[in-house]
Design goal:
Helices cover 44% and strands 21% of the residues. The chain contains ten helices and nine strands. The chain has helices at 3-15, 18-25, 29-43, 59-86, 102-116, 129-137, 199-208, 224-232, 242-246, 280-299, and strands spanning 48-51, 54-57, 91-97, 120-126, 143-148, 155-170, 238-241, 255-259, 266-274. The strands form two sheets. Strands 3, 4, 5, 6, 7, 8 and 9 form a seven-stranded mixed sheet that branches. Strands 1-2 form a two-stranded antiparallel sheet. The protein starts with a helix and ends with a helix.
Amino acid sequence: MNLRDLRYLVALADEKHFGKAAERCFVSQPTLSAQIRKLEEYLGVPLVERQPKRVALTETGVRIVERARRLLQEADAIVDLAKTDRDPLSGPLKVGLIPTVGPYLLPHVATRLRRDLPRLKLMLYEHQTAPLLEKLRAGELDVGILALPVPADGLETAELYDEPFALAVPAGHPLAEREHVRIEDLRGETVLLLEDGHCLRDQALEVCSRVRVQEPQDYRATSLETLRQMVAAGHGITLLPDLAAESPVGAARGLRILPFGKPAPARTIGAVWRKSTTRGAAIEAVAEVIRGQMHEEEQG
């Protein structure tokens, strides 16, 4: 039994298809199939149920894959540790961002990250909070950029910046000509929100819980851009994070973006990573660049 064979088995468990698993492992399908059969012979138990057009793990196979994932994660950590000891600020760093942060934060920090950390290769992935944390704990991501707080068992967190909310209303709305608004101004309004799974939905609901608002029960948006279109079309109002309000979302025709008077409702954006990570130096360096850039823009 070796790590290569365990990687083949884990790939097959994920893909549930010999051809796709082989492609993922950069080997031919017959090679992957033969190695898994050898692994089954070595262990003396079947790991895979082979049926026409369907591949499933046996009960024993499922349990072995769970342990194999942990073993492979530790093996990869050994390699990463050796690499990062040579140059901790080089190589790939897998960064996960939630959809309401990634497209709006990256234009602000990408240039500075390339300038200050030129040997670090950022691999960017977008996930909602729950799957992002799951992939982080599984070792598929090195660090997550998301709204705090989050369940932090086995994880470290660090605050990066606070992001106020703004109110988006149709251009013809009674609030549209205000210089700023208060949370109380939302009372009785129809507030459009993202679908379940987006942490921004929960944050907006928390703000709206202070006053009585209406939420359409037959509508949930999948993105901030969808919310923008619905507000511009006059179907309601919504809350936008500050960076999204400054982006082309905020410049849409038929839309007015209004700041809240102080103290404005806000959310805290932070970095999250495993306590056991070997990429601590790179993660801290990325966090410091983001924190510094956002602080400079806030002061400017």
